[in-house]
Amino acid sequence: EIVLTQSPGTLSLSPGERATLSCRASQSVSSNYLAWYQQNPGQAPRLLIYGAFNRATGIPDRFSGSASGTDFTLTISRLEPEDFAVYYCQQYGSSPFTFGPGTKVDIK
Amino acid sequence: EVQLVESGGGLVQPGGSLRLSCAASGFSFSGEAMQWVRQAPGKGLVWVSRIDPEGSTTTYADSVKGRFTSSKDNARNTLYLQLNSLRAEDTAVYFCARDFPGPHDALDIWGQGTMVTVSS
Q: Tens digits of per-residue pLDDT, B109-119?
């Protein structure tokens, strides 16, 4: 089973700042099959990025994904008020598909 | 409108059973794989299972293997999750979600979730 580790656990930033979220896999993720989701309290998650790099439909271009080996990064270039939420990575390259524990981005 | 609506959650005693449903609309349900994901109160997302478009191949997390069964009725556009031998640690909101069309198995459409509480 691939274990995903996300860091930091909490990121405290101000609107307009840049957010960098990390997701490290315990082994190689096939074909960079890694996704990022955003979740607000009481809501279902929303797909942001798939295939490590590709923005889902309707996702603003301030969200971007990158990868280097087993390290994956979600970058939010300039935080908007609606971006303060919890972010999860998920690998779907091998079963069982697994999620990371999440990074909470809150307002400083 | 593309939509998934879960139902069937509730309070059940340890060792009991429950069947969750996920009604799909607005897309070709028979052509898409589906997944279940759960989230315990105040905790993170946990992958539960995946079923292929035809409903013939399923995979499960080790924590539910042998106790949970996912099925897919393409004629009724409905996904099911049968939960047996329930434990307190199965208490969670259960989400159904659609595999992103194509080779990626990311989850692009999610239901609102249904709460399962296992308690005596």
A: 999 999 999 99
d(CA B120, CA A99): 30
Q: Is A39 on the interface with B (CB under 8 A)?
A: yes
Cβ–Cβ below 8 Å for A90 and B45: yes
Vertex A42: Cα angle to B18 and B27 (nearest 5): 70
Question: What residues contact residue A75 under an 8 Å CB cut-off, 6+ apart?
Answer: A18, A19, A20, A21, A63, A64, A65, A66
Condensed to tens digits (0 to 9), the pLDDT of residues A63-105 reads: 999 999 999 999 999 999 999 999 999 999 999 999 999 999 9
Point out the residue among B106, B111, B113 whose CB comes nearest to the CB of A92.
Answer: B106
Least CB–CB distance from A96: residue in B61, B100, B112 = B61
Q: Kindly list the residues from chain B whose CB atom is less than 8 angstroms away from the CB atom of residue A41.
A: none
Answer yes or no: do B45 and A56 touch at CB < 8 A.
no
Q: How far apart are CA A106 and CA A10, in angstroms?
A: 7
Helix (H) or strand (E) holding A13: strand A10-13
Please report the pLDDT score of residue B97 as a whole number. 98
pLDDT interval class at B103 (50, 70, 90) = confident
How many Å apart are CA B108 and CA A47, to the nearest integer?
A: 5
